[in-house]
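Dear Dr. H.,

I hope your travels went smoothly. While you were away I took the liberty of generating a structure for the chain from your last submission, since the lab meeting agenda had it listed for discussion. I wanted you to have the full record in hand beforehand rather than looking at slides cold. The sequence, exactly as received, is reproduced here:
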Amino acid sequence: MIIDEKPMSMAEAKKIVDSTEKEEVEETSAYLKKFTKLKVEEAEEMRKELEALEIIQLRPEQLVKIIDTLPQTVTDVNKISPELSLNEDETKKILEITKKYK
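The corresponding predicted structure, in token form, is as follows:
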């Protein structure tokens, strides 16, 4: 049953899955443990920092992909979404944030 639908980072999803004690979530939990790069607190802090940039064209779905993948180059940022068109300054600010969490 879907209660709410909103984009979230893998770290945030891991927190929810970890708080649910059911056999059905074991696979999801294993996946999230394997691929989550940040602790929940770090992901939440990074989200706040990215949102504070107020980049209009950066949608929530793209924001969580930045948190999940921690891009380290301009090319990595550009791969987040084909329709995302950031200028050099915006990309630089995103990379400054992601590099703090690598």
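Two observations you may find useful: DSSP finds six helices and no strands in the chain. The chain has a mean pLDDT of 88.

With kind regards,
E. W.
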